[in-house]
Amino acid sequence: MVNTSRLGRVQTRLIIGAIIAVVIGLLVWVQPMGTPTASSATTLDEQTLEAKALDWARAHGLQGIPLAKRAVRMTLGQWLAFSGGQLGPGSTQFGVDQNTAVFVLAIHGSVAWHKLGAGLQGQNTPEQFNNITIVVDARNGNLVSAAAARNPTTMPIQVPLNTLTPAAPINFAPTQRPQTPPTRAPTRTPLPSVLATPTLPALQSYP
Amino acid sequence: MKIPFASLFSALIAMGLVIISASHNSQATLRIQSSQRVLTFYSPLQHPHANAAQKKDVGTAWGVEGRITWTNPDLRGGTGSAHRVAVVQQNPWRYTEVGWAKLTNGLYTFVTYENGTGPITQYFSNLTPAEHQYTAQYDPNTAKHWYYVDGVSFFSQPVNFSWGDRVIGGGEVIDGIEGMGNTLLFDLRYLVNQGGSFLYVPWDGYERYVEDRPYCNVPNGLNSFYDTECWVYLPILIKGG
User: Each residue of B200-223: pLDDT tens digit?
Assistant: First the structure.
């Protein structure tokens, strides 16, 4: 009788312990889901991201088929750190932060750069490169960055030129502490608005 | 039949322009408004990547800013129309730009720069389609350029130069067929260092930097101009026989 009672108590304690363990386990499992970060948000699959990145590369001047390419996933903070860039507090209005997942496609191939930005001084034709690196937001494929390097050895993501060459390890820059933006310099009293008197001539449109 | 000399001369000029234009661009158009008996000719020369920009050469500019309207330009099958302000160091060649760009999948604010290694552009989607103030300024304490939309910093980047000797503003299209949307750049200023204090001062004038026709700028005061398209018109009267 006594033994049966002790056995019952032991069983009860075991059941309570199991319940507590399950609850703790659930809490540990649910906690990260309850506070999602940008990097944990759903991202597009590799194939879709690569297709979008290639489209952007062509829009920036990639000609023909890439000779070689290498795709890497990382965070936006890691990508920007390669060149010493950092997001400021105002970047939240653009829906990104340091943890935003990005997809980087580094490409070797013929590039006639004709995207935004002034070319070299005095150069009237698109500058030629043998590489281009495109970064897209891994959540939606939106364009994040486009870069071409005059010296391909300075590309942050090195692309092996053939299958026999092993891919070089990626040297991520150390995480930087966020810097406080300098105060924007004061301006004088605003000029009177010029919007009231536009002098735009009547324009013809394309047929 | 007697053909008036003026008509013959005009016709020859028109034919010459058509040939010149056609050699540049298969989309060159000759339009005859027969009812008004007026021949109108325009030549949208296609450039891969065309500009309409004004400049001001300054002693030292530590930054640049301007307000730019949102005009939702028609891309006409092209890939992008952008409007921005820039500060440039001519020797060695360095620059940085900030503004907005309408690309095929939406509106971005962008920062582009040349630090000597090659062109780099950072894009930020979800920009609100409205007039904004865009600022790029160098900060000697951090040795970086800092970028602002409506006075709020969203990005910073070392660009390998501090001050420039030229400021630029204007529109830029990717494929040479996109519209510029009559976008107004106004309240243009650049950053000077006056006795240790940084101060934005108005441009107070500018001059032509580059206008790849048909893209051009239309002045709107000393600190303002439009990015737009200016067709080449050649009205020719055709006299009846």
Answer: 999 999 999 999 889 999 999 999
Where in the sequence is the domain holding B129, given as residue range(s)? 50-229
Q: A197 or B237, which is more confident?
A: B237
In sequence order, the 6+-apart residues with CB closer than 8 A to the CB of B4 are: B239
Q: Which pLDDT does position B190 carry in this prediction?
A: 97
Chain A nearest-CA distance from B65, in A, is 10
Query: Is A72 found in the same domain as A87?
Result: yes
Which residue shows structure tokens 């030292």? B60
Domain co-membership, A80 together with A16: no
pTM: 0.76
Q: Which residue of B has its CA nearest to A88?
A: B154
Chain A closest-CA separation from residue B240 CA (Å): 27
Closest by Cβ to A142, choosing from B125, B148, B184: B125
Task: Judge contact between B63 and B175, C-beta under 8 A.
Answer: no
Same domain assignment for residues A31 and A130: no
Q: How many domains does chain A have?
A: 2
In chain B the beta strands, taken as DSSP E runs, fall at 29-33, 38-42, 50-61, 63-68, 80-89, 94-103, 106-114, 119-125, 132-139, 144-149, 152-157, 164-173, 183-194, 197-202, 207-211, 215-219, 224-229, 236-237
How much of chain B exceeds pLDDT 90, in percent? 66
Question: Cα distance from A12 to chain B (closest Cα, Å)?
Answer: 57
Q: What is the CA radius of gyration of chain A?
A: 27
CATH code of the domain in which B136 resides: 2.60.120.200
Determine the distance in angstroms separating the CA of B35 from the nearest CA of chain A, rounded to an integer: 18
**How far is Cα of residue A94 from the mean position of the Cα atoms in its chain?**
12
Q: A111 and chain B: CB distance < 8 Å anywhere?
A: no
Domain that holds residue A112: 40-154
Q: Does A1 touch chain B (CB under 8 A)?
A: no
Closest alpha carbon within chain B to A142: B125
From the candidates B96, B120, B187, which should be mutated to test the interface with A, based on the most A CB atoms within 10 A? B120
